[in-house]
Amino acid sequence: MKKTKISKILLPLSFLLIMVICLTSCGTANAEKLIGVEFSGFNEHGTASVKIDDKAASAVLDRKKISNYLTKLKSRSSNSDSSLDLVFEIEYYYETGDAVNLFYDLDFEGKHDNLSNGDKVVVVSSVNSTFENVGETRKSIEKGSGIKVPERMEFTVEGLGDIKTVDILKDIEKCVSFNGANRHGKAQISVPGDFQTQIGDLTISQNNSYYGDASSSLKLTCGEKDLGTLSLELDKAENLNKGDTVTVSFDPESATISNLKNAGFYFSADKKEITVPDLGDATELDVLGKISKFVKYTGANGYGSAYIEIPEDTNIQIGGVYLKGRYKSSVSVVYDNTDIGYIEFNISSDKDLKNGSKVYLTVDSDSTAIEPLHEKNMYLKEDEKEITVPDLGSYINAKNELTKTDIATIKKMAMENAAANNSSKTVKFEAMYFGTIKPDAATSNRAKGKIIVVYSYVDMIIFGNPNYCYRVVVYNDIHKTSDGNIMVDKTNNDSIYIRDDDVSTVTERLDSNYSYEKIG
């Protein structure tokens, strides 16, 4: 049986009762009339605690004498949290001179809280001894000590007042505010400084209403007595739409609720639903849909990766908003001719992407334009967009895998890049080589071939004569898609300068793990 601790037992009263119980000159003293139960609280929520009838004990003391064998009487509080405060401890001597310490533990049997008038409460007693070899029964203990404590005492609950049921959250709608637009709405608990609900003697108001600032907790007072505060919580606060419901709640087990019950009140509900009003329609911006075209890929099938490359001259209009190129992975957001911040983008670029793999274009949480857009009831249509990796092609590992058209395409691309990178525009194609990995050279499972393009340009003019220099561009990891498009991973390109006229010896200066054959 679980022992429940009962507080508020006064030590002097307990001591007095022990003395009364231990009187034996006129027979065994019956403690049943001296041990009682006191009920406190209110109907349906009452509590019970053991009490001592000190007046009855005093009257008995006037008529009784202490046993010759009883040398010590006292009551003590148990150290165990599971037993009652009231414990009778008796020390007396047998005629043989052996000392015995005896204990009566009083415990509740069954229910002793949340009581109503008319309920039954039972207190039971048990006997213990400090010496296991004494072997005395309850009967012999009563005879030797002159104490009789009934094993089971039943009491009827009475005198509990009626509790008043109150709706703590009666006016809580006034404390929940909504902003944003439909589908993107936000809710917030904001108890104003002048909030007050009066229910009889109970006052419910804002907690810590300094300077009228809003709070998320309520203060409860009964008359001049402070009962404490209740913290309020919302079950959800974002992505709300008209007609949704949010629930405001408080902890029904808090100390403030206990104080409330002791003051004669009980709450009717610890939560309340509030319907989200019509917040107005939002403007949705398909930003990721527009930016997805700037997702690029490098590497062939099975070895691909993704990256974002937004040109600086990008200027995309979505409704009244303009997205302007900022850096390679971000755009500035302009509204009403004002730059309101930027949006940064991320792309999942796991290594070794295959054709048909999925990558995800997302908006970085640190983007500064998001909140300003929300203030104008503008929202991104989505924060994440799934993109299917296109055909990345396969690597070119041998010269015979290139057609004449492929060679011409690579040559044209190389010369266009050369012209763009040389302000003199005096670039001239010199030679083109295909490099094949040597059989005994270490290599990965990736491309085993590369293309070398050599072009010349005017470095300077000396005494009216142009001085030519040469540059070698090495294209690594060339691959071709199934539709025949040649792709070059620019991240794997190398450039080499040559400061003499002997172009024919260029291959001697390249990676010795490859053998080179002229293809143009």
Descriptive notes:
The chain has 520 residues and is mainly β. Helix content is 12%, strand content 41%. It has 7 helices and 39 strands. The strands form 12 sheets. Strands 25-26-27-28-29-31 form a 6-stranded antiparallel beta sheet. A hairpin with a 2-residue loop joins strand 25 (315-318) and strand 26 (321-327). The model is unreliable at 1-28, 57-97 and 131-135 (pLDDT under 50).
Characteristics:
mainly beta, 12% helix, five-stranded antiparallel beta sheet, elongated
Shape: elongated
Strand content: 35-45%
List the uncertain runs: 1-28, 57-97, 131-135
Q: Could you give the count of β-strands?
A: 39
Strand order of the largest sheet: 25-26-27-28-29-31
Mean pLDDT: 78
Kindly report how far apart the N and C termini lie: 99 Å
User: Portion of residues in helices?
Assistant: 10-25%
Structural class: mainly beta
Quick rundown:
The protein has 520 residues and is mostly beta strands. The protein contains seven helices and 39 strands. Strands 25-26-27-28-29-31 form a six-stranded antiparallel sheet. Strands 4-5-6-8-10 form a five-stranded antiparallel sheet. A five-stranded antiparallel sheet has the order 38-35-34-33-39, with helices on one face.
Can you lay out the helices and strands and say which pair or pack?
Elements: H1 11-21, E1 29-30, E2 35-40, E3 46-52, H2 54-61, E4 70-76, E5 87-93, E6 99-109, E7 113-115, E8 120-129, H3 138-145, E9 147-148, E10 152-156, E11 164-166, E12 176-179, E13 186-189, E14 196-199, E15 202-206, E16 217-222, E17 225-231, E18 233-234, E19 245-249, H4 255-262, E20 265-267, E21 271-275, E22 283-285, H5 287-291, E23 295-298, E24 305-308, E25 315-318, E26 321-327, E27 330-335, E28 338-347, E29 358-363, H6 370-375, E30 378-380, E31 384-388, E32 394-395, H7 404-420, E33 428-437, E34 449-462, E35 465-476, E36 478-480, E37 486-488, E38 493-498, E39 514-518
Parallel strand pairs: 1-9, 11-20, 22-30
Antiparallel strand pairs: 2-3, 3-7, 4-5, 5-6, 6-8, 8-10, 12-13, 14-15, 15-16, 16-17, 18-19, 19-21, 23-24, 25-26, 26-27, 27-28, 28-29, 29-31, 32-36, 33-34, 33-39, 34-35, 35-38, 36-37
